[in-house]
Write a structure and sequence with these properties.
Porin; mainly beta; single chain; twelve-stranded antiparallel barrel
């Protein structure tokens, strides 16, 4: 499988688990065929685990997920640094593919390539449920929609569901960054389950 994300419509889901669960995601085709899984890398220390027990600022702590094929072949690492300002996508060998840089928290993010050149941006609606990915000319190349699952699910579990539609053809590395937008935005904006 040379391009596991070749489809123009994908689903990204975070399994329903307690609010203190590790970061996990599934990337699927529209029909539910599993393409990749992501799980938090490394072990968290006791202080980091305790920080997740108290709502309010857990999204400010750094975390990274390793995205692999279902058989375990590494694809990418999505690494959200402490705070909300920088999330880096790396190859399994550690080479930077691109970055999500916060321009306005919760509203606008600029995408950069490995050479730190801007390649696009993400605009976010007020509810933080719709993410429009555009190239540097302002042309929409992808749309990510977060499904609202209700207050109890939002506040008490990690369950989030996203639909990604890509307006192919989209050049690399912008296409990869567009595919990983749901995971990056979830880590930056939604994972803590804060009421903001």
């Amino acid at each position: 499988m040379s391009d596991p994300f070749g489809s123009s419509t994908l689903r990204v889901e975070q399994p329903r688990r307690g609010p203190f669960a590790r970061s996990q995601y599934k990337v699927m085709e529209e029909d539910g065929t599993l393409l990749a899984v992501a799980d938090e890398t490394g072990e968290r220390g006791r202080a980091q685990k305790l920080q997740t027990y108290f709502p309010g600022k857990s999204e400010l702590h750094g975390r990274a997920v390793l995205l692999t094929t279902p058989d375990g072949t590494p694809l990418f690492v999505v690494d959200k640094e402490q705070g909300r300002m920088l999330t880096t996508v790396r190859s399994p060998e550690g080479e930077v593919v691109g970055t999500f840089r916060t321009e306005r928290v919760g509203r606008r993010y600029v995408l950069h390539d490995a050479g730190d050149e801007p390649i696009g941006e993400i605009s976010v609606d007020l509810a933080r449920n719709n993410f429009v990915v555009a190239d540097t000319n302002g042309k929409q190349v992808a749309h990510v929609r977060k499904k609202w699952a209700g207050v109890a699910t939002h506040l008490l579990t990690t369950a989030d569901k996203y639909t990604l539609t890509i307006s192919d053809p989209v050049a690399e590395p912008l296409r990869t960054m567009a595919v990983l937008t749901a995971i990056a935005m979830d880590m930056i904006l939604h994972e803590s389950k804060d009421i903001t």
